[in-house]
Amino acid sequence: MTTTDDPWHQVDEGWGRQAATFASLSEPGNCREYVALHHELAVDTGERLLDVACGAGLALELAALRGAVCAGIDASPRLLAVAKDRSPGADLRVGDMCAMPWDDGSFDVVTSFRGIWGTTPDAVTEVFRVLAPGGRVGITVWGHLKASLGAWALSPFRLASEPKVANQAAMVSLGRPGAGEELLTRCGFADVRRVDIPFAWEFPDPETYARALASSGPAYEAIQAVGEQAFLAHATDVARERLRDGLPLRAEIKVVGYLARKPAPSRLPEPPAEPSRAGFVAEPASTPEVERLYADDMDDNGYVMNTTRMFAHQPAVLNGLFDLQAQAHQAASLSIRQRGVLIAAMASTLGDSYCSLAWGERLARRATPALAAGLIGGDDSGWTEDEQALAAWARKVVRDPNGTTAEHLAPLRHVGFGDAKIVAITAFVTLRMAWSTMNDALGVHPDPELGASAPPALLDAVSYGRTIEGATRFSR
Ligand SMILES: C[S@@+](CC[C@H](N)C(=O)[O-])C[C@H]1O[C@@H](n2cnc3c(N)ncnc32)[C@H](O)[C@@H]1O
């Protein structure tokens, strides 16, 4: 709720009193700034664009030429009347930029040309609100005035009373290095950057310059202090010293542009806040299928394996992979010990610690810890001939499937595996590789329970891959 006591209602007194002169003598001098900022923002056809403190609306006319669907707000009804005359189809409102009459997320682009200052930070909060997620903002302010060749053109404003001059300095402070970046970041904007914006006023003669300047809001503050005639005389004198033969009066002034973006919510689901026992993914939500998989693990092992926690995100894939593996090892009539040899040889060659430990421990129970550790280290002595043939083949499949030859199958054939079983054995190895690769790629560590039950020789042999300690951090 605003009242006519709110300061923005006083703005028109200064800014609106010579609206027609401002629009035709002063505002066109800003055209380089408008074009440059629209270019930086890549304003495009169909985009909903709001210009804050739009004044007489020349910037809006130029944005419409780029195809933007334009809206504007300004505190001065008399300036806005000019804007409406120029852009009858635009959504133009008289109002306060610190309490804008548009819904959240109404615009794709918001601009403001020297309309938002260090003294009006609330306007930036409003800009953030009315921008759609992902929307862009571009704000210009005066830059380093003392370093500007054309600073003379603004000097008559200093005829204003001391408090008014102090307020003008506070407004301009937004152009200082870091000031705009800090304000925009504090208001929630991302990708904040500062660019130099070209700005040059040109006038045919000192009198025209003085008239143009006198039509602005800050000039009115000076006029209130010294009177209109004195202001015009002073400004004309200042400009006379800058006359150049055959060329217009020219005042190049440093203008800073701040560009930023309202962050868009990520389209990707949030990653887990911290790694879980399921690796880089969170544990899946409880469903009947997930609970069934967990119950099977409890029956088989007395605990839920980390790999199950990860794979339970896709129960159908997990069950399918299980079934395929079973079909493959049944087709080859592999014993559990033969399967263990194939898996341990495959996993150790691949560098996968999880399956090396899980199946190494089973092999240790069915043979000896030393034999299991030896096989994992690449020493197959002590294993039967068929087990040695299986281990050698598994390692070749992992290490260099393009480097195999028909001769490499001879040891398998020698121990009685025909073509159909060789295909089934190779399928079993590659299906198990898929499982190991899933664990490793998704950061699934071996279960701490495996570390507790594995014999020391085996733990020493598995010196690669993801560590058991990596999982103990997440134990529950
Ligand atoms: C330096 S002028 C810039 C005008 C315009 N952007 C241009 O480039 O010519 C500042 C503008 O801010 C407007 N203004 C000042 N306070 C305002 C407020 N609280 N809400 C909306 N507009 C305001 C003035 O009426 C004036 O048009």
Task: Please tell me about this protein's structure.
This protein has 476 residues and is α/β, with parallel strands linked by helices. The chain folds into two domains: 7-261, 3-Layer(aba) Sandwich (Rossmann fold); 288-472, AhpD-like. The chain is 50% helix and 12% strand. It binds S-adenosylmethionine. S-adenosylmethionine (SAM) binds next to helix 1 and strand 2.
Largest sheet: 7 strands, mixed
Please give the count of helices. 23
Assembly context of the chains: single chain
Secondary structure tally: strands: 9
Gyration radius, rounded: 38 Å
Distance between the termini: 55 Å
Integer tally of domains: 2
What is the molecular shape?
rod-shaped
| Ligands (ions, cofactors included) | S-adenosylmethionine
What is the CATH homology-level superfamily of the largest domain? Vaccinia Virus protein VP39
